[in-house]
Write a structure and sequence with these properties.
One of its GO terms (molecular function) is metal ion binding. This is Cupin type-2 domain-containing protein. It comes from Lepraria neglecta. This protein is mostly beta strands. 0% of the residues lie in helices and 43% in strands. The protein is built from no helices and eleven strands.
Length: 128
C-alpha cells in the first residue's frame, strides 16, 4: 500500500475559516487533509472566554504553547488550568468553555479526531 505524501502547513497558510466560538480566535492548520485527524491554533485574548460548546463526536487534545488559561467543564463546576507545556483531553460531546482571565494572550494547539473541526456552540450548560 502506498502511503499518502507528507504535507506541511506553513504559518502563513494558517487561516480563520474554521468553526468559531465567540471570544476565541480559531485558526485551521491541518484541515481536510486526513480522514482521521485535524489540527488548529486557538488564541484567547486577555480577559476573554469562549461560549459554552462541545465538539460533537470528536475527541480533542489541547497543548498549551503560551499563557495561562483554563478549561471549565462539568456544568461550570470544574475548572482546570493549563500553562505552557500542559496537555488536556476533552472527550467527544464534553461541554466546556475556554477561559483566559489573565493580561496576556493564551495560545493552544488543538488536535481533533476528524477531518474538519466541529464546534457546536450552546446557549448554556446542558442546552443545545
Amino acid at each position: 500500500m502506498m502511503a499518502a505524501p507528507v504535507e506541511v502547513t506553513k504559518a502563513s497558510e494558517v487561516h480563520t475559516n474554521t468553526g468559531q466560538t465567540e471570544g476565541m480566535i480559531r485558526q485551521g492548520a491541518i484541515i481536510d487533509k486526513s480522514d482521521k485527524i485535524c489540527a488548529s491554533v486557538m488564541i484567547a485574548r486577555p480577559h476573554s472566554s469562549s461560549a459554552i460548546h462541545h465538539h460533537g463526536e470528536q475527541d480533542t487534545v489541547v497543548y498549551c504553547v503560551r499563557g495561562r488559561g483554563a478549561v471549565v467543564s462539568e456544568g461550570g463546576k470544574k475548572r482546570q488550568t493549563l500553562e505552557k507545556g500542559d496537555f488536556a483531553l476533552i472527550p467527544a460531546h464534553a461541554e466546556h468553555q475556554e477561559v483566559n482571565e489573565g493580561d496576556e494572550e493564551v495560545e493552544w494547539i488543538i488536535t481533533r479526531s476528524g477531518r474538519v473541526p466541529v464546534v457546536e456552540n450552546l446557549d448554556g450548560w446542558g442546552k443545545s
